[in-house]
């Protein structure tokens, strides 16, 4: 488990992380979401002891990172692709890491297999594609078989096959009962990968809830209906006491009535219907709506 309590980081006049508190539980993928500059990387760096908090605490299984004995066996992280010396061959990099952390060499073979790194294991890390560098970074993170894993924007720059592989890996690590925290600035990506969402903006917590609850709470569901006589349709709906509004493309968005009721109302008024169906606002729209104030505030204050 990861516990962040009142975590704050100030860089000069800029508050990168501002009194953040949340928990990351085992057995599920927790998506750590926020627009660019929201403070995700800074938070992860503080959890990993790479940055010192201005205030507050970040604990892994009840202890700060610096107090963990054999940290590679407690927590693994992919913070930036690779991390290996460019001239060093991938297998040698992993063997060196294993040796310096008293991890048996047999585990190196296992993580190479697990990450699909075999074809590149004998090559120098400097010539790696981003996809291979990511796999090497993940192999290193998994070396100590840690119960807690952090990934900072792991799908950035990956091709579709790499993205699919990464999603599967994150899900299987969580299914094994590990604590998995994954940052992203793309809601659509977390929608397919995460079970739980922690959303931040401008260093502050905006939402912390199961993904399904997020969808239910923020993704308004409505009946979309297109008719050549929208004004008459709006009038009929209003007289029936059903809320509706005109959407951006001219179709009507009706809430509080199901498809059948809307269709029957149209028929009763002799209105032609060209299109009708239930739809819901996308997760991406909901994410933009929630984080928009933080983004606007940020560009206003920082003059970016
Ligand atoms: N070492 C640093 N010195 C000064 N300011 C920093 C430093 N690191 C981060 N910041 C600032 O802190 C804020 C949060 O940055 P951070 O990288 O944590 O955000 P992020 O959510 O990870 O964004 P991104 O997705 O763009 O990486 C930004 O305004 C950034 O410019």
From TrEMBL:
<dbReference type="GO" id="GO:0005524">
    <property type="term" value="F:ATP binding"/>
</dbReference>
<keyword id="KW-0547">Nucleotide-binding</keyword>
<dbReference type="GO" id="GO:0016887">
    <property type="term" value="F:ATP hydrolysis activity"/>
</dbReference>
<comment type="similarity">
    <text>Belongs to the ABC transporter superfamily.</text>
</comment>
<dbReference type="InterPro" id="IPR027417">
    <property type="entry name" value="P-loop_NTPase"/>
</dbReference>
<dbReference type="InterPro" id="IPR017871">
    <property type="entry name" value="ABC_transporter-like_CS"/>
</dbReference>
<keyword id="KW-0813">Transport</keyword>
<dbReference type="InterPro" id="IPR003593">
    <property type="entry name" value="AAA+_ATPase"/>
</dbReference>
<dbReference type="InterPro" id="IPR003439">
    <property type="entry name" value="ABC_transporter-like_ATP-bd"/>
</dbReference>
<dbReference type="Pfam" id="PF00005">
    <property type="entry name" value="ABC_tran"/>
</dbReference>
<protein>
    <submittedName>
        <fullName>ABC-2 type transport system ATP-binding protein</fullName>
    </submittedName>
</protein>
<feature type="domain" description="ABC transporter">
    <location>
        <begin position="2"/>
        <end position="227"/>
    </location>
</feature>
<keyword id="KW-0067">ATP-binding</keyword>
